[in-house]
Amino acid sequence: MSCLISLSQSPYGSRSAKESLDITLVLAAFEQNPGLLFIDDGVLQLLPKSQQPSPHKHIGKIISALEMYDIDELWVETESLQELGLQLEQLSQPVKLIGRQQLSELWSKYDQHLVF
Fold this sequence. Notes:
The protein has 4 helices and 5 strands; from the N terminus they run βαβαβαβαβ.
């Protein structure tokens, strides 16, 4: 079984980003082949740790552990990247770009789809 997890929340301001990544690691531990789609403000989760203080722990360590769990299907929506004024080179992990028009095709490749 495979599961695509869409991450649309900023890494700060709520626990949603950390909790969704925790779920991803659990799925991988049970060989559920999760993929991650970073969309909207969720793309910000892929930026290196900023100097801005936050009451929430930075999720960079979890992001960097994805490879150890064999989670290599990392997708970033191209339009979200552009809307945030970011370049692919600024992201902390290698990702695959996907356009908004191709999202339904990506979703259909997975048995389940969780949205955070």
